[in-house]
Amino acid sequence: MKKLLEFSGIDPERLVLKWVSSAEGPRFAKVVTEFVEKIRQLGPSPLRPKRFGEQTLTEKAS
């Protein structure tokens, strides 16, 4: 999956898969907090719609 994301121009670090049991509340909170911080460091998604006046990813490709 990460290779497909990279091929598509999306940073593979935007995908994380962790198995967490329903009995692991503190671990779940830690996993989510770490992932949110990583996404914030990476910045906005390249697929996110742009604000008024900015080009979208598909507009740049054409």
Overall description:
The chain has 62 residues and is mostly helical. 47% of the residues lie in helices and 0% in strands. It is built from 3 helices and no strands. The protein is elongated.
Mean pLDDT, to the nearest integer, reads: 84
Largest sheet: none
How would you name the oligomeric state of the polypeptide chains in this document? Answer: single chain
Give the helix proportion (percent range): 40-55%
Termini gap = 26 Å
Query: How big is the Rg?
Result: 15 Å
Shape: elongated
The poorly predicted ranges are: none
Class by alpha and beta content:
mainly alpha
Question: Quick one: how many beta strands?
Answer: 0
Q: What portion of residues belong to β-strands?
A: under 5%
Summed up, the helix count is 3
The arrangement of helices and strands along the chain is: HHH
List descriptors.
elongated, 3 helices, 0% strand, mainly alpha, 62 residues
Summed up, what is this model?
Helix content is 47%, strand content 0%.
